[in-house]
């Protein structure tokens, strides 16, 4: 028995050393849960010190991928250069099933790759937090000029968009579809008066593709910025960026802490910036039933990719119809108008899994209230595997010594 425990623990520890790959996939299973959440009901005094968001009564969400089954936008944080972005959806696709018959159709594309003959742009709008500042909502969401950094009153021709930004800069990719008016029951929910906004990309079963490079930051005057030399590509509920620029646990305008959901697709590891990983930012119970202490950090993937410092890579994230979520990186990724289910299966089948899949618990859960003390005391994540290994080993070693 002791040997078995030692063996299992060693295998896991050795495996942990072998969890980096420049092509491969990071997997989560059972993503999506039944939960409750409050959303913004009213924004008051947006531009003065009495600024606040009041919330609605809690409402339920449920189903595979929930709440990431809702409309999502792609956030791109520097230092990064984005060459391609594409979004696809399909009525149904289950990884490993023989019954996938429907084609994935491209709903949006941004392609400025130098190798391509013409710049293909469709159903994308670039926005950023570049407008008027607010104590509780940060800078308002606006269009961006073609430099991807400065505020613009009009939506410029996206064909001239230079999707290259440094540390501390971020742009967000929305669809071309403008939000209907602000209101609790409306498509875009309640948002700040006067802002420009479009909807995110819809579908329970979704695929986002990217081609990009994440060069090291060379401008040291940016050192004081948040996320210095920590690029990321992440997808988030479109309400997040309409609510606020910053994500604070005690700010009702920040829907991340109210449980609206986000997914870090490729986010650089800030303790070792040569690597990047994935993380699910929801309150879904993990393997042992615990909920993450810090939803901003999220439920981390069991493995990492090397950061593409001086290479250009292609990959993306797939949300299938039963809650399998896979981040993948492979140079065989194609940005065609149609992707057949066989093509997508082949793409994923051929690449190695990096680290083990994280299979979450389906359980239902009431989203925590938005005060820090509450999250801290109600939800506590433990690194269960190491704890169990450690305590079992200690127990057996003690038993053995006696
Ligand atoms: C907005 O601010 C005014 C004072 O400037 C205050 O009287 C009012 O109660 C505030 N509204 C809310 C909803 O906090
Ligand atoms: C957050 O929203 C709740 C519910 O509307 C409200 O009771 C509370 O005062 C708000 N908190 C802040 C800091 O705005
Ligand atoms: C495929 O569909 C058939 C008939 O609907 C069903 O019996 C089978 O279990 C399905 N296979 C998978 C892998 O979902
Ligand atoms: C899927 O796309 C392929 C390639 O474009 C096409 O040949 C096929 O007919 C499509 N299948 C369906 C069901 O639309
Ligand atoms: C653009 O994307 C949005 C969000 O997914 C979708 O509703 C809309 O149909 C797309 N537009 C076109 C013309 O495909
Ligand atoms: C470095 O970053 C600062 C702050 O964003 C900017 O003002 C400056 O132009 C940058 N320098 C170069 C050489 O890009
Ligand atoms: C980030 O890097 C540190 C240091 O190498 C490592 O301990 C940690 O596991 C990494 N994080 C993830 C999510 O892989
Ligand atoms: C690319 O980056 C890697 C990792 O930092 C480094 O080892 C390698 O020398 C770089 N190659 C070139 C051509 O700069
Ligand atoms: C694609 O990646 C594979 C595996 O890393 C590599 O062997 C191959 O040379 C790459 N092909 C291209 C065209 O870069
Ligand atoms: C103290 C407090 O505000 N508790 C609320 C926490 O959230 C649940 C539902 O999300 C409410 O029912 C509680 O009243």
UniProtKB/TrEMBL annotation:
Keywords: Cell wall biogenesis/degradation, Glycosidase, Hydrolase, Signal. It catalyses: Hydrolysis of (1->3)-beta-D-glucosidic linkages in (1->3)-beta-D-glucans. It comes from the Eukaryota. Its EC number is 3.2.1.39. Residues 1-16 form the signal peptide. GO terms for cellular component: fungal-type cell wall. GO terms for biological process: cell wall organization. The keyword Protease does not apply. Residues 25-89 form the Cell wall protein YJL171C/Tos1 N-terminal domain. One of its GO terms (molecular function) is glucan endo-1,3-beta-D-glucosidase activity. It comes from Maudiozyma humilis (Sour dough yeast). Belongs to the PGA52 family. This is glucan endo-1,3-beta-D-glucosidase. Residues 103-346 form the Cell wall protein YJL171C/Tos1 C-terminal domain.
């Amino acid at each position: 028995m002791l040997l078995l425990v030692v063996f299992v623990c060693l295998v896991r520890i050795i495996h942990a050393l072998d969890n980096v790959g420049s092509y491969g996939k990071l997997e989560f299973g059972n993503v999506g849960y039944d939960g409750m959440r409050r959303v913004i009901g009213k924004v008051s005094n947006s531009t003065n010190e009495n600024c606040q968001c009041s919330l609605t009564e809690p409402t339920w969400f449920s189903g595979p991928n929930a709440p990431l089954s809702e409309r999502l936008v792609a956030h791109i944080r520097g230092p990064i250069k984005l060459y391609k972005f594409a979004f696809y959806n399909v009525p149904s696709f289950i990884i490993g099933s023989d019954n996938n018959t429907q084609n994935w159709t491209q709903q949006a594309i941004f392609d400025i790759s130098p190798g391509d003959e013409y710049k293909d742009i469709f159903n994308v709008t670039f926005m950023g937090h570049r407008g008027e500042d607010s104590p509780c909502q940060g800078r308002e969401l606006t269009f961006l000029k073609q430099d991807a950094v400065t505020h613009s009153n009009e939506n410029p021709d996206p064909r001239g968009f230079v999707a290259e930004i440094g540390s501390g800069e971020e742009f967000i990719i929305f669809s071309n579809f403008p939000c209907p008016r602000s209101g609790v029951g409306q498509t875009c929910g309640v948002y700040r008066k006067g802002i420009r906004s479009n909807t995110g990309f819809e579908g329970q079963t979704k695929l986002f593709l990217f081609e990009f490079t994440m060069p090291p930051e060379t401008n040291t005057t940016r050192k004081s910025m948040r996320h210095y030399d920590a690029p990321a590509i992440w997808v988030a509920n479109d309400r997040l960026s309409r609510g606020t620029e910053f994500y604070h646990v005690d700010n009702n305008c920040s829907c991340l802490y109210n449980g609206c959901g986000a997914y870090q697709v490729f986010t650089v590891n800030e303790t070792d910036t040569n690597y990047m990983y994935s993380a699910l930012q929801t309150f879904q119970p993990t393997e042992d039933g615990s909920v993450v202490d810090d939803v901003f950090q999220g439920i981390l993937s069991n493995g990492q990719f090397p950061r593409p410092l001086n290479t250009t890579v292609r990959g993306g994230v797939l949300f299938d119809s039963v809650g399998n979520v896979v981040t993948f990186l492979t140079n065989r990724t194609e940005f065609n108008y149609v992707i057949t289910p066989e093509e997508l299966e082949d793409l994923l089948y051929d690449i190695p899994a990096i680290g083990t899949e994280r299979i979450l618990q389906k359980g239902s859960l009431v989203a925590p209230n938005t005060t820090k003390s509450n999250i801290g005391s109600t939800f506590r994540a433990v690194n269960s595997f190491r704890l169990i290994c450690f305590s079992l080993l200690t127990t057996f070693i003690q038993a053995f010594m006696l």
